[in-house]
Amino acid sequence: MSAIDLVLDPLFRLPLITGLAIALVLPLIGALLLLRDEWLAALGLAHLATASALLGLAFGLPAVLGAPLGALAGGAFKSVAGARGNLAYGFMILFGWSALFLIAANTSLGATLGHALVDGQLYFAGALELIAALALAGLAGAALPRLMPRLLRARFFPHDERANRLPAHRWHLSFDLLTALAMAIGTATVGLMGAFALVLVPAWIAFRIAPGWTWTLVICALTGVGGFLLAYLAALALDQPFGPVLVAVLIALAAAVETGRGLIGRTRLKRPPQVR
């Protein structure tokens, strides 16, 4: 059976749609995180989500329901504390990593399931994971158009909020919680590193080649969805775990873009000056 036949198989239909929704949302959030110099948020919140997902599994909760608890708590604490930059997320990584393996070592779940959460459980996605991913996509579609102008203004005109006494904490908190929820659902399905790669790599590619913000969002979405589809087909065809394949595909896309930029730059340098 070919990879296309496997994708069309009803058994893999729910994981495919679930992953597509996540691959569309996470890169858009990644563009805003990279703009705010907070890209490490993805990894910090993902570690908290993985730890709380494992703790939830110990109490009988599905991973997609347990994961948001830790991520939302981390996002809310960071926003209320007024922390900016990557330092707060660095401590989240350390705390989440420690909690993850302590929970794995002291419950009946063991380290195997902890590693499964890190690698991703997309192939086991069912109706609950699909509903969570589609709800996330709907929430992001409603919230991001309202949040983006405010976050862009806060980045490029940081004194505007204070000068005009704007309630900036509202949209910063809203974005932090949306990021936490997205990372939690992403981590519970495509895995810790897969979710982090979907946030970081498409945004990095877009920032390297996009001529403006609108194109940045378009390139992020196309890279995320395209990279996901390539990884999904490759993982099914080669019978490989999805998370590592997704990370490898996204890194290969980033390398191809950077190589292409280098070739274009060298071609321009070699052009003889035009005589008028």
TrEMBL record:
GO terms for biological process: response to zinc ion; transmembrane transport. Keywords: Membrane, Transmembrane, Transmembrane helix, Transport. This is ABC-type transporter, integral membrane subunit. It comes from the Bacteria. The keyword Thylakoid does not apply. Its main location: membrane. It is a multi-pass membrane protein. The chain crosses the membrane at residues 12-35, 42-67, 87-110, 122-144, 177-201, 213-236, 242-264. Belongs to the ABC-3 integral membrane protein family. It holds the Pfam family ABC-3. One of its GO terms (cellular component) is ATP-binding cassette (ABC) transporter complex.
